[in-house]
């Protein structure tokens, strides 16, 4: 399949508007492109907020056609993020990119969404981050339809955008403003025109829909009857407000993935094998949360834990077989922890450490499995979970270790973990 191409939009706006501050959310940064700039969405959100009793400053950085990748590499935006601790940031990707084929989205969208989130949290770990879910083109994406049929219709394109924005929120522990989902319901149930003449950009009604949804994502408040409506008539406002409130509140678990308790997980990697009983390894937190403090411990004599360091990782730590590591993380929500055993098994010392026999043959090293093991399937899996070798119905309970890179592996017998194996 040929690579999907973009339609680049050439409007540009960079504005900063100051107003009285709210205690909880005093400032909001909008990062996007023309879908953010058209009809001055940031100011529209501000006016909705003011009508609801919430006042805050808004800053907009929205060059036309800009992608997350472009934003993540823009010194002007990165300086803007660093200059101020924004209480909330709204992120909008280029209007077509998240609906493209999965492999393209995974390489051209997701990594740069994470870079932006990380940059924001590096500056203000507790900033509320909201992904601005956009909508499908009125008649689908005609330019890319031939090469990618799922975007040939509004419905197909809109569903892909919805799924990808939710995924970004899950991956980065943020909120998502479900504008595309509300857009779909308004299209299906009313005759309100949400589009400008190009079938892409929002009309005033479309911008109002986006503003109400973003406001709810920021404040989680019911919109009262005094709401700012802009140039809309009251009937259309009421239809949009009621639909937005219904979709947002009825499916809140789809939109809220913001948490200060990032799932705890860590892994270890062997740096150097010292002997059959000891080695040097590194410990790394798989999920890194800049809002939290990381502390590492190892169990010693008398089942007492000793602290071995702080931070996201521990480098070059000397340990012995059957060590027990403990990671303690403290954040605004309290304390969380994760722990696991490190089973160090050298091929040279299998008989000593596991009771299994290791013999040297003309074809290499072999493991003699216990007689009680009536193995039909044996799998060797590397530390990344990849299957590197599978054998069925091993004769005489022998397993020949294939030629693989040095490192730690897992041996499974009939889908059950038998032991960890260090291949030297």
Task: Describe the secondary structure blueprint for this structure.
Layout: E1 12-17, E2 27-31, H1 34-37, H2 41-51, E3 57-63, H3 68-72, H4 75-83, E4 88-91, H5 102-108, H6 110-123, E5 128-132, H7 154-172, E6 175-177, H8 179-189, H9 204-219, H10 234-250, H11 252-255, E7 266-273, E8 278-285, E9 293-299, E10 305-310, E11 313-320, E12 323-331, E13 334-342, H12 350-354, E14 357-361, E15 364-368, E16 377-382, E17 387-392, E18 398-400, E19 407-413, E20 416-423
Parallel strand pairs: 2-3, 2-4, 4-5, 5-6
Antiparallel strand pairs: 1-3, 7-8, 8-11, 9-10, 9-12, 12-13, 14-15, 15-18, 16-17, 16-19, 19-20
Helix pairs in contact: 2-9, 8-10, 9-10
Unreliable spans are 1-23, 343-358
Give the number of DSSP strands. 20
How many separate helices? 12
Reported CATH architecture of the largest domain: 3-Layer(aba) Sandwich
Query: What is the CA-CA span between the terminal residues?
Result: 42 Å
Q: Strand fraction band? A: 25-35%
Strand order of the largest sheet: 1-3-2-4-5-6
Estimate the helix proportion, in percent.
Answer: 25-40%
- What is the top-level CATH class of the largest domain? Alpha Beta
* CATH fold call of the largest domain: Rossmann fold
Please state the structural category: alpha+beta
- What characterizes the major β-sheet? 6 strands, mixed
Number of domains as seen in the coordinates: 3
Radius of gyration: 27 Å
Gross geometry = elongated
Q: Specify the CATH homologous superfamily of the largest domain.
A: SGNH hydrolase
Mean pLDDT: 82
């Amino acid at each position: 399949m040929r690579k999907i191409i973009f339609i680049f939009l050439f409007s540009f706006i960079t504005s900063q508007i100051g107003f009285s501050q709210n205690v909880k959310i005093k400032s909001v940064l909008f990062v996007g492109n023309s879908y953010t700039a058209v009809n001055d969405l940031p100011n529209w959100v501000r006016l909705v907020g003011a009508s609801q009793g919430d006042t805050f400053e808004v800053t907009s950085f929205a060059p036309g056609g800009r992608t997350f990748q472009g934003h993540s590499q823009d010194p002007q935006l990165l300086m803007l993020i660093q200059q101020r601790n924004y209480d909330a940031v709204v992120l909008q990707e280029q209007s077509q990119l998240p609906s493209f084929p999965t492999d393209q989205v995974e390489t051209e969208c997701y990594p740069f969404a994470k870079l932006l989130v990380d940059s924001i949290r590096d500056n203000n770990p507790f900033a509320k981050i909201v992904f601005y879910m956009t909508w499908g083109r009125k008649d689908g994406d005609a330019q890319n339809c031939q090469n990618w049929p799922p975007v040939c219709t509004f419905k197909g394109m809109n569903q892909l955008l919805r799924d990808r924005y939710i995924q970004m929120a899950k991956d980065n522990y943020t909120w998502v403003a479900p504008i595309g989902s509300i857009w779909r319901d308004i299209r299906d149930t009313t005759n309100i025109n949400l589009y400008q003449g190009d079938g892409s950009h929002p009309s005033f009604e479309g911008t109002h829909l986006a503003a109400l949804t973003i406001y709810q994502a920021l404040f989680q408040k019911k919109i009262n009857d005094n709401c700012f409506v802009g140039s809309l008539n009251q009937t259309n406002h009421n239809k949009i407000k009621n639909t937005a409130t219904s979709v947002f509140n009825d499916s809140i678990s789809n939109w809220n993935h913001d948490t200060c308790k990032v799932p705890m997980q860590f892994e270890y990697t062997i740096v150097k094998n010292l002997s059959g009983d000891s080695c040097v390894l590194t410990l790394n937190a798989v999920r890194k949360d800049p809002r939290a403090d990381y502390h590492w411990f190892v169990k010693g004599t008398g089942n007492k834990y000793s602290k071995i360091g702080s931070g996201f990782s521990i480098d070059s730590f000397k340990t012995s077989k059957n060590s027990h590591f403990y990671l303690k993380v403290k954040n605004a929500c309290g304390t969380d922890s994760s722990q696991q055993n490190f089973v160090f098994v050298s091929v040279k010392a299998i008989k000593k450490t596991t009771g299994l026999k290791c013999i040297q043959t003309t074809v290499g090293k072999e493991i003699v499995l216990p007689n009680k093991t009536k193995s039909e399937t044996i799998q060797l899996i590397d530390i990344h979970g990849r299957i590197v070798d599978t054998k069925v119905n091993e004769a005489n309970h022998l397993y020949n270790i294939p030629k693989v890179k040095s490192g730690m592996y897992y041996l499974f017998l009939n889908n059950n973990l038998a032991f960890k194996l260090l291949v030297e």
